[in-house]
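Inputs:
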Amino acid sequence: MNAQDIIALKERGLAEAAQAATLAEIEAVRVKYMGRKGLLQDVMDGLKSVPPEERRDFGRAANELKQELTALLDGRKATLSAAGKAAGRKQFDVSLPGAWRGLGTRHPVTQVIEETIRIFSMLGFTVADGPDIETEYHNFDALNTPADHPSRDTQDTFWLDGTTLLRTQTSPVQIRVMERCKPPVRIIAPGRCYRRDTTDATHSANFHQVEGLYVDRKVSMADLKGDITFFAREMMGPDVKVRFRPHFFPFTEPSVEYDFSCHVCGGSGCRVCKHSGWIEISGAGMVNPKVFNIVGYDPEACTGYAFGMGLERIAMIKYGIEDIRLLYDNDVRFLGQFS
Amino acid sequence: MKLPLSWLKDYVDVDLAPKELASLLTFSGTEVEGIRTIGGDFTGIVVGEILTCERHPNADRLTVCQVNSGTETLTVVCGAPNAAAGLKVPLAVIGVTLPNGLKIKKAKVRGVESFGMMCAADELGLSEDHSGLMVLPADTRVGTPFTEIAGPPETVLELEVTPNRPDCLSMIGMAREVATLLGKPLRIPAPVVKEESRSVESLASVALEDPAGCPRYTARVLSGITIAPSPSWMQRRLAAAGIRPINNVVDVTNYVMLECGQPLHAFDYELLDGHRIVVRRAKPGETMSTLDSAAREINPEMLMIADGRRPVAVAGVMGGAGSEIRDVTKTVLLESAYFKPSDIRKTSKKLGLSTDSSYRFERGVDVENIEWASRRAAQLMVEMGGGVAAKGCIDVFPSKPARGQVTLRFDRARDLLGIAITNDQVVSIFKALGLGIVSRDAACCVAEIPAYRVDLLQEADLIEEIARIHGLDKIPSPSPVAKIVPGAEDRATRALLAFRGNLVGLGLSEIMNYSFLSEKLLDLVGFGEAAKRVVLPNPISADHTVLRDSFIPQMIETLGKNRARQAREAALFELGRVFCKDEAGRNAEVDRVCVGLMGPVGRPGMLKSQPVKDEEMFQWIKGILESLLAAQHVPSIVSGGLSRPDVTLSMMPSPCFEEGRAVRIRIAGADCGVMGLVGDRVRAEWRLTDPVAVLELDLAPLLANALRIPVSRAIGTFPCVDRDVAMVVEDGVSHEAIVATMWKAAPPELVDIRLFDIYRGENLGKGRKSVAYSLTYRSMEKTLTDEVANAFHDKVKAALKTELAAEFRES
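Outputs:
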């Protein structure tokens, strides 16, 4: 027997191993070739009769036989046993629902608040806060809205006593911030406000506003326009336009109101914008020098802009909510839509 | 304010379509809220006379009328309550289409044929009035086409005039705006009055006792006046502007007020005691009834117009019933005056009476226009009522105020607006607005403010004029520049946002309730002390009378409402403020979070159908508490090898919660919240039959360390050894006591304790339970051998035995 015979033997073994269809047949092949009394052992027993110069090739061929046959048999065994396990295992329905508790949702007004914070944070604004129960001074007087002036009429107030009230706007936070910080000031102040409005589809006695105030050297109305426009695009979409109309607020001069072009129809008119293409948002203006004087800022050394926005209104527009009362009804079917 | 365009065009030429004019006004500061057309095509509508009017045989509320149309007599069935024989009314015959789109056809109404329709004002698009047939003056000729009565269609702009612009509360005021914006001339009438030789001073006198409250008072006397309806053109204009026509004298006062913004009052001269006007404060004890026949409580702070004896008008607000124009009035005393705005506002507020007059006075009228308005009204009254005016005008004006002057720095205007407008452009805007230029140099100009512009008091006001006339659209809108203010930081906001994120991550959905609620709801749930509640003295409704001192009542209500809407489960939270009075009685606000659970919220899908047990529900809410405490880095205490939140829970009595299922929560020794299962009595209010859990916590301790940066510790590389212990203890021995005992007894190598079984059964004996724990030991220095681990574990067991009388169940 020489090395060629061993290679031929290997080929036969490999062919038999490939044909073995059960674990028992695989084992039979192993025993036949590599068992204690197997064919490979027979070959090795003949090693002594091989001439010394051929022994190296002979040995290598015998070794190859052993390795290759073992590898093939092991592979066949693994495949067959995996298939066997799979055949014995219960199948499950992967279309069944998952069982992990889902995430909750943020209230749509909160989402607008958080989005507003994000947008103005990009510009370096930080969040300021003030109390819901305010003084008449902070809510009105310091905002150049004296008691005997008709500009108070627009805000029907919940008075708690002669001098304290539930704030009708977030503007008193402007005053509180300017009382405690020197300029420059760059803040927004989201919060709850209260007015004695009879509740209907667009009015709520309890609502949210966000106030913005930027005071520095040479702040201009152009800055106000640019920043509000930036906000509009970030909040409602990159194609939204803003238009400004002159208006009156006691604590800003000049004062403006601003409208966003309708993000739903792009300005051509739809249900959300009542077919006008524009949606009235809120008011803003350049801080009235009288207000600066009241808080002890020098109106010659600084100028500033301020704005306020109704957050329910923005949420309603943004999400197409038709009735403000839905925002305070807390129906889980409604809230679940804002994931 | 309503602005009929035909009236506006008396004073300025407007060649814009109504929509364009509306846009022009809106973008210069007078918002046009609506455009309305009054009237329309009245072809085929004629003046009819009701000849007879009888009850419909088959209907109580209908009448059958014979109506003369001028050419024939028609039978018309009518539903109007005021139908009566002799009335002249608009009559639409068969085939006519009304302005509101209704087409008139022959109809059988309850068995009676009707050949036309008599119309109410709203059906003709003339007003909102649907109270009855529109009754035309008795002398109207039957058969006259209605177009001749109603005039051509009128377009009316509905304006929102801001409180700073009383000058815009009139036709001339708006014409002035339009003229400025269009660069057109303004035509103001120059009234000339037919006067007799008798002087007004010989007929009447004015004593101005309170020049502070009334800086200027004028009076004219007109005699020989015949009270009659005013001409139809005037009635149409008044109606279009929203004022009901009454008679020629009263209508003229209203007409001139609408024309120029100056409220006027006409007294019956013969009813003025001593033919005397005294402008004074009310005297203590005085009373009066106003034109609307209401008895008014007046007080000495209120300014009155009195005659020689008694008050005859509440100055600037409303005339008195005892001196008003009657059908028999022959002589009229006409008042035109200026009253101090804040006085009028106070009086109007106090009386709860706001009129067209007080509305204008409290905003400020043109003190220089008082006499013009008087002259204009006298002219019209004489033209319409016949008669003649006494010579002259009593004009008490003790100190004529100088016109204001305001300096504008051109650079300041450019800087504040951010535009490159030239000095010349600024000056021409001022001139167009009617401002006088007193002086001007390269840096600034001084503008003289006309008396009608009561809003222009400071430089910023002038800058606003530049902005609105030049156009806000001309101001650039640059890309924003981010800027960090020194010292700015937003840690509190970041902490709150992250906290909310954690709540949402736990599967809770956010709700928002009003800050006020009914006391009934608070009482029902019984949180807080009633005496410390902040109560609203002027609530809108009984449901909103007090500020909430806890979120829990509304949370339970919200769960209940959702249950009533057939929601099977809800896991909710609310973040915000509660209110109460502090020890000193001051109003205090505290930020809190509240969580509420209802239904099988803690279970996976297919197990949800089994009823929720109390204990299970409590474990869910507690699980939320523990997750939050861990996430928010509340102060911790270290026991054994592990630190855990420094939180203690103690049972508390509560009317809201189930007995024995109410827990007070302390963090680092301070009370900061409650947690529990809502009791039967409270749940019954919303028919909640299954367990409901709520948790309420102060936010401050949860947020205080929220942004703490964790410092990493070694986690150990050697394998751990687990050892179980199963024991029987008295039922009263709490998990907490067992765990505490273990921690205390174990070496630092004990790193975790997990409960894995609780069993109660008869075989254990009454009042006993079997509990099983798995303990993990790990050394940071070496691999623990079985012997060492067993020694640790034996120590723990020994402690359990001696301290808690535990008996071990050997397996």
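Remarks. The first helix of chain A runs from residue 3 to 19. The radius of gyration of chain A is 41 Å.
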